[in-house]
Amino acid sequence: MKPEKLFLLFEELAEKMNINIVQGKGDFIGGMCSVNNETYIVINKVKPIAQRLNVLGFEFSKLNLNNIFIPPALRNFIEDLQQDIFNE
Q1: Structural domain count, the chain
Q2: Residue 10 maps to which CATH number?
Q3: CA distance 19 to 80
Q4: 42 in Cβ contact with 33 (< 8 Å)
Q5: Are 52 and 45 in contact (CB under 8 A)?
Q6: pLDDT tens-digit series, residues 6-47
Q7: 13: domain range?
Q8: Confidence check: pLDDT of 86 > 90
Q9: pTM score
């Protein structure tokens, strides 16, 4: 699947889970945070899309996704990231 399509699927998943994806510029990698009871994933829009997808996948892999429908390609991407992290 094309990286741009995966990114759109992450945006849809974030919307389902009431998570705001914020894209900014700067000297940072990105990650998840909570402000005033709202959850945000901040990603660096200057970084290559592969790195942005890895940040999104890593942050979503920390969440309970068992009862949420996730398109198979996106679920596989997240699970593959979890395996990579586990094997390090």
Answers
A1: 1
A2: 3.30.2010
A3: 22
A4: yes
A5: yes
A6: 999 999 999 999 999 999 999 998 999 999 999 999 999 999
A7: 3-87
A8: no
A9: 0.90
